[in-house]
Amino acid sequence: MPVALHWDEPPARHAAGAPILVLAHGAGAGMDEPALDAIARGVAAAGVRVARFEFPYMAARRADGRRRPPDREPVLLDTWRAVVAQLGGSGASPPGPRDLAIGGKSMGGRMASRVADELGVRALVCLGYPFHPPGAPERLRTAHLATLRTPTLIVQGTRDRVGTREEVAGYALSPAIEIAWIEDGDHGFAPRRGSGRTRARNLAEVAARVAAFVLRR
Predict the structure, then answer these.
(1) Does 1 fall in a domain?
(2) Residue 119 placed within a domain
(3) Residue of 24, 27, 1, 47 lying closest to 208 (CA atoms)
């Protein structure tokens, strides 16, 4: 069965030849989570076609309202493979994998990073990459990032507790990875009161960074 996709389309003046960015959600909220929704809409407004989807456990939650833990990793990875194949990444007529950028929020982006090289996509975008579980900085999720070949943008809040600026500076990361830091942002890019910044401003900055990255690939 095809994976259901929600599309955010660019303005008509940008529609012809617009690249596609496919985004998955984080572990605890679906594709319409406010931060992901704002980022997807902002990226689309800048000239990128954005497709969002949900992993099976979240799609089931949407259907019956019952909370479930995330699917096991093989299911998450196979869902990414299915979405890319559905969009032409299996060698079918265009678009093909080289026309697709993939990524997502937190867990969704981490799973995309596991299959990006395998699928041969044009780019990878990770929004708040979970470099380690909360409170467990010794349990790194970075081994595959050292050899990643796909051009990658990681957008990270400077206060993200699963990957601070100081921690990330010590990781061995592939030269294919660039990191954009969002000032005073937490894991959802929200700043503290009194920081002089707003959540809306931070999310707009995330969207602008992502759109510029995808458009120049």
Answers:
(1) no
(2) yes
(3) 47
Give the gyration radius of the chain's Cα atoms.
16
**Contact (Cβ atoms closer than 8 angstroms) between residue 81 and residue 24:** no
First to last CA, the chain: 31
- Which residue range(s) make up the domain with 207? 6-216
**What are the angstrom distances between the C-alpha of 177 and each of 21, 30, 69, 94, 155?**
17, 26, 30, 27, 11
Counted domains in the chain = 1
pLDDT tens digits, one per residue of 118-167 = 999 999 999 999 999 999 999 999 999 999 999 999 999 999 999 999 99
Give pLDDT < 50 ranges for the chain.
Answer: 90-93
Question: How far apart are alpha carbons 104 and 125 in whole angstroms?
Answer: 7
For residue 55, the domain's CATH number is 3.40.50.1820
